[in-house]
Amino acid sequence: MFDIQLIIREKERVLAAMRKRNFADINLVDKALELHEKRRRLITEAETLRAEQNRRSKEMPQVTKNGPPEEKRALQEELKVLAEKVKSFQPLVRAIEEELAAVLLAIPNMLPDDAPEGGEDNAVFIKEWGKKPDFSFAPREHDDLCMRLFDFARGATLAGSRFAVLWGPLATLERALISFMLDIHTRERGYTEVLPPFLVNRATMTATGQLPKFEEDLFRTNDDLFLIPTAEVPLTNLHRGEILSEEMLPLAYCAYTPCFRREAGNYGKDTKGYIRQHQFNKIELVKFTRPEDSETELLKLLDDAEEILRRLGLPYRVVRLAAQDQGFSSAKTYDIEVWLPGQGRYREISSCSTFTDYQARRGDIRFKRKGAKATEFVHTLNGSGLAVGRTLIAILENYQRADGSVTIPPALRPYTGGWEKIEPT
RNA sequence: GGAGAGAUGUCCGAGUGGUCGAAGGAGCUUGACUCGAAAUCAAGUGUGCCCCGUUCGGGGUACCUAGGGUUCGAAUCCCUAUCUCUCCUCCA
Fold first, then answer.
1. Quick check: A42 and A93 in contact, CB under 8 A?
2. Cα distances (angstroms) measured from residue A365 to each of A24, A236, A244, A360
3. CA distance to A184, A242, A255, A331, A370, per residue, from A250 (Å)
4. What is the reported pTM?
5. Which of A165, A236, A259, A419 has the highest count of CB atoms within 10 angstroms of its CB?
6. A47 beta carbon to strand B: under 7 Å
7. Helix axes A294-312, A168-183, angle to 10 degrees
8. Considering the domain A120-422 in this protein, what is its CATH number?
9. Residue A175: which H helix or E strand, with range?
10. How confident is the model at residue A166 (pLDDT cuts 50, 70, 90)?
11. Distance CA A132, CA A317 (A)
């Protein structure tokens, strides 16, 4: 929910941010102002009448007890008319408020002034880590290795395109990665592990920003529940409608969940291999912070995600997304991109963002400072820590050997029953 | 799936048609006491919106799970939904 007050106070800045995002419906801002003004006028009028009704109504017990019956009847008649009038405002006000809410829900989050201009190609390089492996042979792509263990044909039989079955060592490797990542985040990085529902309702999807605008990206059930596209959704909604106390903050949660995405609009993109699936596993990190802490907490969260790649010895770089490439609800996003030698390029493996108070506003997630009277919205942050399937791909491609076998990174071996490699298939 | 009970403020909990934004308690804040803490005592302590004055208040309005309804008037009565609990049924 965009803050109408911000529009009133700083319309030009809001518009500038929307233009920077290359957001089409810029007229939403004027629409919001207009509706807000209309609503104010209506409310003022309706509440004046209502006050009159309440005032007169208070006379009723007195009149009933002591007054003559005619006086009571007269008062009743009068109040009936007033009540009708007051009630006639209800549908008008509600219609306007619904319209205004719809408009405010459709406006993307504000951007910080230093948000980089441009789109996908304008991401700003932040840093890189690790040494790209040197191969004495032409490195293969992940699905070219372990060919029999990635079973896209049977995935298609069972469900359709963009579904896969993993066999044997790959299934184990995926499971090992999940435990490995969760252990690091919970034991070393202070996150509380959560196992949330994988299906959520409309209100939950609306708070984090997937609804109402992006329904076509989601899988929906007959019961009007949605399969989560990321654990960000249930984790961020954990405190929806709550007032947290300042001492609780920052809160840090992590969760393993499968993620389900329609991938609408990605036809023909990454159709080969395990890169882009309708269902994939992800470890997600979510934080709730005071507004003044969100910047530093974002950097910490980013480092928590990077740590997984460092432990696994996978080379990566970090970029800051340009305005047009950023998510609708996000104010600032860092992507971690892992090196994939088979593809010969970096691919996104984690996206770490601050949503400032945008999701908190939509989900009514507030906190109260010690000693303060007023409540404030928290800031919410999240990032992948990491996308499991893509980590598996990165291991295969970076640790492949000439004979088609794959070395298991040492840090992971306690989780794979001590295996040191996956044999070629 | 069947039968019944319930949902009140940060928490616990009273309230069954008007004087209820809501008793009481806990918590929290401030003050007193104290070298300090604890204990004790006193005062204060929900949120959104609208209007007016605009350090900071004042007035109004709405909110007692949500949405409808009855009524001049609803936390209180009726209907629906959601959730929780108990019993039965079923189930990994």
1. yes
2. 29, 9, 8, 5
3. 19, 15, 17, 19, 14
4. 0.92
5. A236
6. yes
7. 140
8. 3.30.930.10
9. helix A168-183
10. very high
11. 11
A80 sits within 7 Å of strand B by its CB: yes
- For CATH 1.10.287.40, list the domain ranges present in chain A: 4-105
Residue A374 above 90 pLDDT? no
For residue A46, which nucleotide's C1' is closest to its Cα?
B61
| A66 CA – B73 C1', rounded, Å | 18
Nearest nucleotide to A52 (CA to C1') is B60
User: What's chain A's average pLDDT?
Assistant: 92
- Out of A232, A306, A390, A397, pick the active-site residue: A390
Catalytic residue among A351, A361, A362, A366: A351
Indicate if CB(A248) is under 7 A from strand B: no
- Cis ω before A111 (30° cut-off from 0): no
> What 3-state DSSP class applies to A29?
helix
Segments of chain A assigned to CATH 3.30.930.10: 120-422
CB A421 within 8 A of CB A221: no
Contact present, A1 and A104 (Cβ < 8 Å): yes
Cβ atoms of residues A84 and A65 within 8 Å: no
For residue A46 the two structure tokens come to: 């309706």
Q: What is the pLDDT of residues A276-303, one digit of tens each?
A: 999 999 999 999 999 999 999 999 999 9
Among candidate residues A232, A256, A234, A278, the one with its CA nearest the CA of residue A177: A256
- Would the Cβ of A83 be found within 7 angstroms of any atom in strand B? yes
Intra-chain end-to-end CA distance of chain A, in Å: 51
A4-105 is classed CATH 3.40.190.10: no
